[in-house]
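Tutorial, part two.
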Amino acid sequence: MHNWDDLRFFLAVARGRTLTAAGAMLKVDATTVGRRIERLANTLNSNLFEAGAGGLHLTPGGEKLLAYAEEIERSALAAHDRISGERSRLTGTVRLSLSEGFATWMVARHLPAFQALHPEIRLEIVTTNGFLNPSKREADLAVLLGRPQHGRLVAQKLTDYHLGLYAARDYVAAHGAPADPAALSSHPLIGYIPDFIYAEELRYLDDIREGLAPHFSSSSINTQLAMTRAGAGISVLPHFIGRQDAQLVPLLANEVQITRSFWTTVHHDLQRVARVRAVVDWLNETVTRDAKLLV
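Running the prediction step on this input gives:
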């Protein structure tokens, strides 16, 4: 029978994903963490972690133990709250998968406020060409461009956001602004590389006019922004990016109005984990504060 102290070490490794990170959380050295995890694995006669990209990942046996260990942790924290009358501090690591633009232009500047609110929660923000999948436990929480249709996932709409056409002021001064969507075919367009589009919601040019294709393309929205600022052409940008850049001007605002949505998505087993819930609540508060940038 394993004790709660062994499970504390297990939870620290599951959240920190390395022995060193777990040791820092528990204020012990990595060797001690490894010894305790090995003892727990031997007691259960099951491997709990396997090495992979980004550190240690739970095995199927580890996944089963995680739900059990977190339930014990919740009970222990609740008992502490009732007895002490104090609110337990939330701790641990949350891996958050975000689109590059949302992470850079909406989330990053609010991190000091999150740190002040939850100083012992570590955030790992992953921005890749394609979201990490909460269903495969690659991330604890993802903000997706569409509601997932498969997997044991719990999704909730975070917010709608709007996009439009933008160009640099210098570009418009030199080349003029298109009078209508048909005139866009006479301008170099900036967009995503078609073969690297990881979500159909990113195919913005199809929403504007059939047959439009980018002359300059990148898998990175921040690179597209840099191209636009440099005067390379006209791009589709979320308003929460375009409106924050004084070098850019909106084009065809009445004719071109594109709407998309962000969805917060967590694995079913993590939806009641306090540290994950805290991040979800913070994201909701963040988009509420910045609502004027989204429309």
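Residues 60-84 form the longest helix (25 residues). In part three we will examine how such features are distributed along the chain.
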